[in-house]
């Protein structure tokens, strides 16, 4: 009976949280199909017709299309950079003991507590001196390095959960260390890699402060900055439908990625929690 009651209470809490998330999301989507007159008439009413032109206005007139492409480019490059840097580092720190290896792992773990605002000013000065401002590749590399502590910490827990017998068998077959990492370890920690891809992509996609500081050219700005610009413009032009359409455009990639990789994400979080 106690187990049944606790399960019922937990399900009710989950339903309540889901409703609190779905209602604002659904309300935003409904408003994106309204005209400004309908929005001010009754914010809870359904639109008389679906005004798809709101999305066209947000995409082209407000330049959201260019911002969207920039965000996709930076986020994908950032994810690739983070994996290329974190997988070898996590494998090395998890499998080998060498001078200062524990100290290096401690430094990476301490990096989890360092906020971007702490290094924003010196990093801006450095990029300015090196003429690297307004560079999307540099921004993606900054994203990747800033997420390395979390990425290495999580991947290390997955790698430590892999039996060394797989590597010993690969060595007997003549595989070198790089082949062991890429052809043995990485397939076995696939749930962890998928988890990292989703979390890092979401972080890079939604990041505002660094992109706002390091990207000054309007043509190279990312979607969060473009959405802020759209909010400023539509506040005075009172095209609220286009503003809500811009918000929905920002949500689309995250929803698609989560829908596709939902099971892998859940598996990765569960396995990582057990192994960690």
TrEMBL record:
Localization of this protein? Cell membrane
Q: What CDD domains does this protein map onto?
A: TM_PBP2
Which stretches make up the ABC transmembrane type-1 domain?
68-261
Gene Ontology cellular-component terms for this entry are: plasma membrane
Query: Can the keyword Plastid be found in this entry's annotation?
Result: no
What's the chief localization of this chain? membrane
Can you tell which superkingdom this protein's organism belongs to? Bacteria
What is one Gene Ontology biological process annotated in the Swiss-Prot or TrEMBL record?
transmembrane transport
Keywords of the record, alphabetical order, are: Cell membrane, Membrane, Transmembrane, Transmembrane helix, Transport
TM ranges are 12-30, 67-91, 103-124, 136-159, 180-205, 240-261
What is the membrane topology listed in the Swiss-Prot or TrEMBL record? Multi-pass membrane protein
> Has the keyword Cell membrane been applied to this entry?
yes
Give the record's family classification: Belongs to the binding-protein-dependent transport system permease family.
Name-wise, this protein is ABC transporter permease subunit
> What is the originating organism of this protein?
Turicibacter sanguinis
Q: Lineage from the top down?
A: Bacteria, Bacillati, Bacillota, Erysipelotrichia, Erysipelotrichales
